Amino acid sequence: MPRDRFLHKSLGTLQNDIQKSRVLMVGAGGIGCELLKNLVLTGFGEIHVVDLDTIDLSNLNRQFLFRHEHIKRPKALVAKESAGPFNPNVTIEAHHANIKDPEFDVSWFQGFNIVFNALDNFEARRHVNRMCVEAEVPLIESGTTGYNGQTQVIVPGKTECYDCTGKETNNKTFPVCTIRSTPSQAIHCIVWAKSYLFAEVFGTSEDDAPDMDNTETSDNAQEVEKLRQEAQALKVLRDSMGSKDFPRMVFDKVFTEDINRLLSMEDMWKNRRKPEPLDFDKLKEEAAANVDPDIAAKDQVVWTRAQNFVVFISSLQRLSVRLEEARTRRDVGNAAAVLSFDKDDRDTLDFVAASANLRSTVFGIDSKSEFDIKQMAGNIIPAIATTNAMTAGLCVLQAFHAMREQRKIKEERNYGKTKMVFLAPYSSDRAIVSEHIRPPRPDCAICGVTRVRIEVDLSRATLKDIVDSLLKTHLAYADDLSVRLQDNDGLLYDADFDDNLEKKLRDLDIKVGSSLEIVDESDEAPRVNVVLRITAKEIAAEELPVTLLEKFEIARKPKSEPAMTNGTTNGTHGTNGHSAVLATNLKRSADEAGLEADIASKRGKVMDGAAKAEGEVIDDDGTINIEDD
Ligand SMILES: Nc1ncnc2c1ncn2[C@@H]1O[C@H](COP(=O)(O)OP(=O)(O)OP(=O)(O)O)[C@@H](O)[C@H]1O
Ligand SMILES: [Zn+2]
């Protein structure tokens, strides 16, 4: 019996398309491993996998294509090696690379029938979304956060895209004074260690920290100013980095002097426990007497004060050496070398854990184990293997729907069967809730734009040919417009900036495949943004070196300018690890949202294993038939 007999019975003629299709999977982490297994077993003919990362010990509990011996090897390559043998009829191409690399351009995306996102960050998701919209390739977007998961089908021009709805980040921020002057919980000390101390000593300034709110009010103005001076003084210490006394200087500054300054503000401690400054020499003595020098490796125990001191000093030294090295390596550019906190970077985590705990000691707050601090500092929401597996399964089912629609002649496609599906076991009545897909939003900067191709004679065309001849004369744009190069988001022209007009496009880094975004800035009924995609052609010298390749209409932007916020149900996209739409703010009830009664009843039928209805039914031989045309 051929291995795919049941698959063929289930999918019908769709299976032929699946076998012939080329698909792209971006991200080979938690969802990616599950998804690749599904894609391979379903028999998608050619599967490309892109992932920039290497395998880490912490991935092994759920990323089942990876084993201990694979640690430090590229995820994309190992995923291919592990999943390839599941099905000899499938070819896997692995790319150990960032999906944002220029080699993965729009024409590369156009080579795929469908793209699957299995990513963990907004930036990459938004990038792939834009590429798919431009390449007009359907995208199955997915994400999970703890027990919640979500799958969204994005069909360019037909459904809303990833950027149609704003994404809320879940980043919690803390008032600067709580973090810097009056911490009362371990998390305050952890944020202080990560976003203030680490940032000032090794990184960029705390002012850039996303979790600290530096807003100045009339109540805190004086204290905020003092804190600024304090930070400045700490920064000055950086000049002594590498010297023998450096660890002591930093310690004395933040655990003794600054605490004494806080103590001098008596009003602050009227209703609070007073902080107690630490003494470097005393702790040094304590540490010499009874601390195991390998204590940093024991990340599940709560370290004593002296143990934290030892880890603080040793991590400060390790990081100083790294920063010094980074400084000497920099031979070009003028940006200062900096280190950034990474929960998986042992040195940075040791430093943050020990500093946070020492500060907790000062303020009488319970210390935490390094393991716990890693979760809190890294905003880690535990990744649940089953949620990933369920979400990856839903991705493939949605891909079937999208592919079926692709087979229909253009006018008949309505994508009505594709759904936005949420796994939300704790925030809705049912574990799986679905919603109908909405159409593209006309004000979306990515999919609500008109895209046209233009032919350009790059040997002579100037920006003026585009702005004056094409846009203003031919397309009747008013003066208030701007032109940006999408590749690098660089402004090329607007009403107040015409320096580039006489320059050749070539000299402005505009080449074949570049896209120019035209924004109508006029107040009166502005047009939607237009993206001009450059193709090259030699054009006779007497003709304009720029021609439109197709006729098109440019719609007007909707009257009100709805902000890109969550007017509807799209939920909250988490930011870390397994970011996704948290289904917590599913606002519509299951019924309203389109959890169709028929699906529920079909499920009933499937479970009975009895009645045949249109859609999913079980055959006598046990095959599940998923409806076909
Ligand atoms: N720009 C990008 N290009 C290619 N791959 C990316 C890009 N951004 C993220 N990824 C990959 O997407 C995957 C997301 O997987 P997942 O959410 O399971 O994260 P993880 O890094 O494996 O685990 P964790 O964050 O929980 O430690 C990762 O393997 C990551 O390397
Ligand atoms: Zn959109």
UniProtKB/TrEMBL annotation:
Q: Where is the composition biased (Low complexity)?
A: 565-578
Q: Which residues form the active site?
A: 177 (glycyl thioester intermediate)
Residue ranges of the Ubiquitin/SUMO-activating enzyme ubiquitin-like domain?
455-537
Please list where the region (Disordered) is annotated: 559-578
**What pathway is this protein a component of?**
Protein modification; protein sumoylation
Give the GO biological process terms: protein sumoylation
Entry-linked PROSITE patterns: PROKAR_LIPOPROTEIN, UBIQUITIN_ACTIVAT_2
**Superkingdom of origin:** Eukaryota
Q: Which SUPFAM superfamilies match?
A: Activating enzymes of the ubiquitin-like proteins
How would you summarize the oligomeric state and partners of this protein? Heterodimer.
Protein name per Swiss-Prot or TrEMBL? SUMO-activating enzyme subunit
What species does this protein belong to? Carpinus fangiana
